[in-house]
Every structure is written in structure tokens, then in C-alpha cells.
């Protein structure tokens, strides 16, 4: 009971944080149809600055870290990213009136990582004085890329199977039609696609090329900014500019980003209504479930390697997040048959607010309760 009481107290306290306050404020501003707008170039610049700062801090830490300590958390991040996509494939895709390719794309977006949600979590961890490995932010690509690749591969396999099934049905229909027609002398073949015994030949399966998917992910603006920061942090000595410029601006820029995301979440509610209640249910439950799964893997790393509880929280948060910048264009290119309103609407209207307002306080409160115990 003491554990539960401490956890609930800590959880409620997180909901009153300034970061989450700006998110809720943005949602309220949009709900009352305010004309307040934040230009898109400013939003993109803020995201770039935040992720570059996160990358720099991670790169500086990696330069001084024992790389062996990173192996298990990185492996777990990859496993969680792939697992999230399979969970969506065999849960959301099975619900009524949900198209399989739309479900796979949605699961891929929820398996990918939101840089802004990660930045919010890092700020709250620092506010609470919870220590974490600075390189933990580098787990981002280990979860993000495998999730996107897995989603696109699964969607391609599914689409190929559907094409084969349709082709087989067409060939069988054609064969049945021809069998009812009189055969003239020197009759004709029923088609090159029909094998001996009247069965249609299997269509050649198109191979999924993985490298273009990885390349597309690496070239995304969010991941590029993070990787650039990591490279600069590892290969150069950016401490002076980091402490004098990036560090002081971080929380102010993050507050504006949360305001924009709150406004965007409310604006996307209309898109979510188009694709039905099942996506809303998935988008509410999935971030919390994914985060708890990652939290469990993180605790295994905590026991085995001494991975900090703050690092466990970061792993849970990136699992709970859904990509808001690099993921949508990657999925548009990789799964063009999927409906963007389904996966983008689910993510921005429900998934991201749940991850920010409920997920981050939940995992931080859980980590603090465990530390107190």
C-alpha cells in the first residue's frame, strides 16, 4: 500500500509540471478556436535545436562511456521496436473495419520514436533530479529504425500475398469460364499463368529492399539532427557552446514545442473521427502498454548491467512515443496504400498527448517509487 500511495502522489505531481501545462494550454487554445498560430518554420527550427542538443549531450557522454554498458539496452530497444509493430499487426489489424495495411502503418508509427516526447522526458528527469546516462538518448535510432523497417516489410509481405490471392482468383475464374466454352480444332491455351492441372502459377514475390527504408529513416529531419549532434559530441569538443547556448535555451524552446503539439493534437481530432473508434482506443492504450513493456526490459538491464532507473524511464518513454516528424514521410513512401489519416490522426490526436500527459509521469513515478523502495 505504501508503494501504491507513493506512486499515486508522484504521478499526480507530474501532471502539474510546466512542460505538461504548456501542452494542455495548447489543447485549450485550439479547442476555443483561437487564431493563435506558430509558423511551421519556427516549429521545425525548435525541433532541430532540441534534438541537436540531445544529440550533443549524448555524444559527449558516449565519448567517455563504456560502450559495453550500452549493448544490452540497445539490443532491448531494437527488440521493443520490432515487438510493438507485431503487437499492432495482431491486435489492431484484427478489429472490425480496420484495414490491415492501415493497422501495420499505425503500429510502425507507434513503434518509431518522437524526438519532442524524448526531449520532454529528459527535461522532467532533470527537474526531478533523477540521474540517467546521457547516452540513453542514443537509444532513439535503435528503436526507431527497426520499427519502421519491420512495418514496411510486413506491409509489403501482406500486399504481395493479397496480389497473389487476387491473381489466383482471376486465373481460376478465367479457367472456369474457358472450360465452359466449346474447344475449336487447334484450340488455344488458357494462358501462360496456368500451370499443369489447371492451377494458376504462383506470382513472383517482390523482394523488400531494406536499405532504402533505413536510408529514408536516417535522412529524416529528426533523426538526422540527433545523429548530427551525436557525431559532433563524439568527434569534437563542443562543451563550451553546449553549456553557454544549447543548455540555457532547452527548456524555453521545449515549452513552445509543447504548446504547438497541444494545438496540433486538438486540430487532428477531426482526422481521427474519420477512421473510427478502434484507432482511438488503440492510440490510448498502446503508448502506456508499449512503455510498460520497455520499462520491464529496462529493469532487466538495470539488474544485469546497472542501467540507471532514469535510463529505464527514457527507454519506456521512447517506446510510448510515436514519431511525429520523420516517421510519417517514411511510412508514406514505404506503405503508400495506407491511409495517413489513420496513423497520423491516431498518433497526434491521442497517442502523443497520452504519452506526454500520462506516460511520462507514469514511468517517472514508477521509477521513483521503486527507488524509494
> How large is the radius of gyration?
24 Å
N-to-C SSE string, H for helix and E for strand = HHHHHHHHHHHHHHH
User: Quick one: how many beta strands?
Assistant: 0
Terminal Cα span: 12 Å
Count of helical stretches? 15
The secondary-structure class comes to mainly alpha
Question: Level of helix content?
Answer: over 70%
* Average pLDDT: 81
Strand content: under 5%
Could you explain the architecture of this structure?
The chain has helices at 2-14, 18-31, 40-64, 68-89, 100-111, 115-128, 140-179, 210-218, 221-235, 239-267, 269-275, 277-305, 309-320, 327-334, 340-372. It has 15 helices and no strands. The chain is 76% helix and 0% strand. The protein is globular, with a radius of gyration of 24 Å. The protein is mainly α and 373 residues long. It has a domain at 2-17 and 68-133 and 142-177 and 194-217 and 267-372.
Q: Which characteristics define this entry?
A:
about 375 residues, mainly alpha, 15 helices, globular
Short characterization:
By secondary structure, this protein is an all-alpha fold.
Describe the secondary-structure layout:
Elements: H1 2-14, H2 18-31, H3 40-64, H4 68-89, H5 100-111, H6 115-128, H7 140-179, H8 210-218, H9 221-235, H10 239-267, H11 269-275, H12 277-305, H13 309-320, H14 327-334, H15 340-372
Helix pairs in contact: 1-15, 2-10, 3-9, 3-10, 4-5, 4-7, 4-12, 5-7, 5-15, 6-10, 6-13, 6-15, 7-8, 7-14, 10-15, 11-15, 12-13, 12-15, 13-15
Transmembrane segments: 20-38, 45-62, 74-92, 104-125, 137-158, 279-297, 303-321, 342-364
Protein name: Sodium-dependent bicarbonate transport family permease
Organism: Acaryochloris thomasi RCC1774
